[in-house]
Amino acid sequence: MYKISKIERMDDTILDISGVGDCFYMTWASDGNLYTSMNDGFGWKDMPEFDGRFYNSRVYVIKGDAPNHSFHHLAEYPNLENDFTGQNTITRYYGFGILAVEDRIYNFMGTLKDPVGALENAFIGVKLIYSEDNGKTWKNQDGSSPVIWEKWEDRNKDNMLFFHEPDSVSGQPKSEY
């Protein structure tokens, strides 16, 4: 068990990096890289893999130590692009938690009650997806592959980690320390 005994601000390692997205929960993985879960954004324009697409949820890998680190689109992560062509075209899932344990990466995906923009919307569940090989392949919580982004009407207690829990508990684990 590790115990933090000192925190030191190192101004020479702080960089102003422009990116577009929300949340950016992070976890260190066994491969020595930092993985970050992003919601509603493009990522970083200076990434080699920048494609200009707007993702509802995405995982990126940060390689190297500051100030010589780089951001990369985790190509193997299942696509979850925002599609603004219709209210029910896809169910929204938001990566509100990411946790690495040994070679596994767990991504906890919050899901809303109604399509985005609906009145009195609330998070009502969490879908769990995971990778057993530091992000190279991804599975649903039952071990099946490929990852399925269930439509609104197909979400239930069998394919969600938490769903319509008592007292409106959404069960959203977050990677906070």
Protein described:
With 177 residues, the chain is an all-beta fold. 0% of the residues lie in helices and 36% in strands. The chain is built from no helices and nine strands. Strands 5, 6, 7, 8 and 9 form a five-stranded antiparallel β-sheet that branches. A four-stranded antiparallel β-sheet has the order 1-2-3-4, with no helix packed on it. Strand 7 and strand 8 form a beta hairpin. The protein is globular, with a radius of gyration of 17 Å. The protein starts with 19 loop residues before the first strand and ends in a 14-residue tail after the last strand. The mean pLDDT is 82.
Present the secondary structure layout:
Elements: E1 20-28, E2 34-43, E3 55-63, E4 70-73, E5 93-101, E6 104-112, E7 123-131, E8 139-140, E9 162-163
Antiparallel strand pairs: 1-2, 2-3, 3-4, 5-6, 6-7, 7-8, 7-9
Low-confidence region ranges: none
| Number of helices, counting only DSSP H or I runs of 4 residues or more | 0
Question: In whole angstroms, how far apart are the ends?
Answer: 15 Å
Which structural class should the secondary elements be placed in?
mainly beta
Strand content: 35-45%
Q: Helix proportion of residues, in percent?
A: under 10%
Mean pLDDT equals 82
H-E string: EEEEEEEEE
Largest sheet: 5 strands, antiparallel
Number of strands: 9
Key phrases:
177 residues, mainly beta, 36% strand, 9 strands, single chain, 5-stranded antiparallel β-sheet
